[in-house]
Protein: WDR60 protein
Organism: Pampusana beccarii
Amino acid sequence: SDGSIRLHQMTSEHPLLQWNGSTNGRPVIALQWALTRPAVFFVLDASSNIYIWDLLENDLLPVAKQTIPLENVVTMTLLGEPEKTNGLLGLVLAKASGEIDIQFVKKKWALP
């Protein structure tokens, strides 16, 4: 609820890494690991901002941020085929109006 993100190892209750205020204090609504690139994950905050984290590029801050204007995004999930190396990865965004939006991710964050 405070925008903190924690990376845990399954064998420990203490996080390996923790990013406090990673969304400037806005609650995290959804977090999804990339299906095609293990070091990348996506975070949706309560203000419809999507943050892209690539831990191989920068493990302190997100590498990109995208705001979805004019409409409240209530959840997100990813689509892609992890067994294929074509770099196709999409974000499925569900808006408060019931509308679904699909946005494809740049290949640099999708390629294995």
Summary: The chain has one domain: 5-109. The chain has no helices and nine strands. The beta strands are 5-8, 15-19, 28-33, 40-45, 49-54, 64-67, 73-80, 89-95, 100-104. Residues 5-109 form one domain.
